[in-house]
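Please check this chain.
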Amino acid sequence: MDKPYVLGLDMGGTNSVLGIVDARGHVLARISIKTQEYTDINDYVNALYTEALKIINPIGGMEMIRGIGAGAPNANYYSGNIENAANLPWKGIVPFAHLMSEKFGVPCTITNDANAAAMGEMMYGAARGMKNFIMITLGTGVGSGIVIDGRMVYGHDGFAGELGHTKIDRSANARLCGCGQKGCIETYASANGVARTAKEIVSSTTKETMLRQLDIDKITSFDVFKAAEAGDVVAKEIFDYTGTLLGQKLADFVAFSAPEAIFLFGGLTKSGHWIMDPVVRSLNENVMPLWKNKVKVMFSDLKEADAAILGASALAWE
């Protein structure tokens, strides 16, 4: 093979990680940049290129790279654009694949970041051999990749599977989401959602919790996890509340796609059983009897740093 490697890009709302991948699915090297530091998309692409050369040049330079596959929020597989992403610093329609191809000098294909993670799980992880499953990414936001009968679901416009922006709360006081709607599950079940719940409880109640010892504006989901591990009752309640809402939404997904399994992926999954237990309980409380205790809920089998990179890189082999 004259060009033995591809690049896989996992663009998150906080960090972007780019890796060199060989034909066997090995991530040979990776670099990362802070997504939010670049308010101009051209500055972001330039920074990514500069950092990428640090790992590309040692393996023979760009002439060894076949192409780029990228997973990004609101990425449209059909058009190559990132369109109105709620958690990225660039608004409107961004011709991302075109900009990357122009800068790197190789073809670039993009897909939704959750779809990329699902592709990685299907090719290299616990979903190998499965033809019907859902990948849920729990990071800055909530994403979802849906595989039905062995095929990724894109819909007619490339945006199928936006679980994070379906509503779980339709009340007047529902949380505002970055997409402009109120009450999206993303505002409750993401890492940021957990932090928002914690801040609301600390600021509006007198419940005893070690979270009060922290700067209220800097509380993170990891702080809540550490408190839960230490036996903090309020922290446990936060995870129970979060998992309950997410389980309700997953029950809706089960009703229309009948998956064999649902995989949870992303930073919030580091909370382990604190998030998993209420999700499974709530899911089974809210599905029709024919699916109760039938759908497996599992954490991703791949390292977080590799799954989306591998899935995205698969696009470049097509």
